[in-house]
UniProtKB/TrEMBL annotation:
It comes from Camelina sativa. PANTHER family: RIBONUCLEASE Y, RNA-BINDING PROTEIN PNO1. Residues 1-25 are annotated as: Disordered. This is RNA-binding protein pno1. The gene is LOC104777666. The keyword Ribonucleoprotein does not apply. It comes from the Eukaryota.
Amino acid sequence: MAESTQMEVETATQTAPLPAKPTFKPLKAHEMSDGKVQFRKISVPPNRYSPLKKAWLDIYTPIYDQMKVDIRMNLKARKVELKTRADTPDISNLQKSADFVHAFMLGFDIPDAISLLRMDELYVESFEIKDVKTLKGEHLSRAIGRLSGKGGKTKFAIENSTKTRIVIADTRIHILGAFTNIKVARSSLCSLIMGSPAGKVYSKLRSVSARLNE
């Protein structure tokens, strides 16, 4: 009797329809922030003020039209100010827009920086030459020269192999790309700073980029 009762319970369990999965509508930006307007401010360095004036429309259009985020230049504070709107589809659009503007301020070209708006897995990493090795005077100048190469040849080779973009601004280096690719590019740049010849770095890059492609 007990066995038949157990079998009946098991049969009922198997035939019972599963409850429908709940469907949640995506939250809008003003709902995620409790209806509060979110702000971001990005400082404009003195050397990027003129390029910003020239490229303002190229920066303004994708942020305002595509990301649905308000943007303005505060001339008194010398900062670019961003603000969410009622029709901003996603709160993350504000941070993406801020990252895009910040990348431009670091020296990246707009076609490269705009990829931060379109792809989620891209980052910007910055470090200084002194973080790797303390160099002064001519030794520092030679290290910067090794990073760029003749006519920027070394920098372009690292960028193309690792699918990244690199900006060398005096002693600061900025890398834009995916996490793994940034790691490879930074390793190559550090080797050059430490004094490795370009040929050795190229051969290592070839083997690493082949593994990345696989």
